[in-house]
Design goal:
Length: 326
């Protein structure tokens, strides 16, 4: 039976959590997490899975110089070999067996002589390109395991993983169907999820938010007010909850067109502005059609609508989590 994305995600996380890293008095060394986050960023952008060793050495070496905080040297051969042994990295084009991640000059010489082509193992690269949930889950696992007491934001920014789109699925990754709208035009829409499926999707996003809160958010680790990764997770939860419909009870609108990723054209909004202290949580956020979003933002009735949305969002949140528990 083919593995599902859930199966692959669980396998990937199990391997990541089982990695062995040398420890210092301040925590584990960052060779492997820096290398993995670089690969996750490449997968997200749909870049080539494998690279020549010279290119890999240059890219990861530069990241180790900039973001190594526990005595790491600019030696990508160490983490690449460790990840290869863990089944997370492929090395191709070499002669003979791949050495273990021990030694110094012998490892450098092996890579200089063999010049292997390598990258994240193909099933995991493809998964992290397609699945926003898998992508954010592994980012969170790496931050929790390796970056206690550190500010990971500059590294996430350098690897292209610190924005509110990081949890989005890749364009075209959602199943679509062709329907005829009220004007008789044929349009593509995502295949509708069942209520049970929508509740399960909502629950998995909320659990990731709960885990993020328990293990320490970027805001507490770094003093930064905004955490785009958390916002990305909360945004995906709200979209799963909405099932493509505007969450303004007085609207019920469902835009006929969809985005390139097959998502409904809905704008996820913090009902109480994040900049003014509004919570970054689905229970205080709503998916709105562009018209209702404009009313909530600058309409004369915006305060009335804001109160309505706060009540509706909390009720929807409790209903969805209750359905998942039931």
């Amino acid at each position: 039976m083919p593995l599902t994305d859930t199966d692959r995600s669980e396998d990937f996380l199990r391997r990541v959590r089982g990695l062995k890293a040398a420890r210092t008095a301040n925590g584990p060394r960052l060779y492997q997490p820096i290398t993995l986050l670089w690969a996750v960023g490449r997968a997200r952008r749909g870049e080539a899975r494998t690279l020549a060793w010279a290119d890999t050495d240059e890219a990861i070496g530069a990241l180790l110089k900039r973001h190594g905080a526990r005595g790491e040297r600019p030696r990508p051969d160490y983490p690449v070999l460790a990840l290869h042994r863990a089944g997370l990295w492929t090395l191709e084009g070499h002669v003979g067996e791949v050495p273990t991640a021990h030694g110094d000059s012998a490892l450098r010489n092996w890579f200089a002589e063999q010049r292997p082509v390598g990258g994240l193992a193909e099933p995991f690269h493809d998964l992290l390109h397609r699945s926003g949930h898998s992508r954010v889950s592994v980012i969170e696992a790496l931050l929790t395991t390796y970056f206690a007491g550190l500010d990971p934001v500059p590294l996430l920014e350098d690897t292209g993983l610190y924005d509110e789109g990081v949890a989005d699925d890749a364009a075209g990754s959602r199943a679509q169907e062709t329907v005829v709208d009220a004007a008789g035009s044929r349009v593509h829409e995502p295949v509708a999820d069942s209520a049970v499926t929508a509740a399960a999707q909502y629950e998995k996003w909320c659990r990731l938010l709960d885990d993020r809160a328990e293990t320490g958010e970027v805001r507490r680790r770094t003093g930064r007010r905004n955490d785009p990764v958390r916002s990305a997770v909360a945004r995906r939860a709200v979209l799963a909850r909405s099932r493509g419909a505007c969450e303004n009870p007085a609207c019920g609108g469902r835009p006929a067109d969809v985005t390139d990723a097959g998502e409904p054209i809905l704008e996820v909004d913090h009902i109480m502005d994040l900049a003014k202290g509004g919570p970054d949580h689905p229970s205080r956020m709503a998916a709105l059609c562009p018209n209702c979003h404009a009313v909530k933002t600058r309409g004369r009735s915006r305060e009335t609508l804001r109160a309505t949305l706060l009540e509706a969002a909390l009720a929807a949140h409790l209903r969805m989590r209750g359905a998942a528990d039931g």
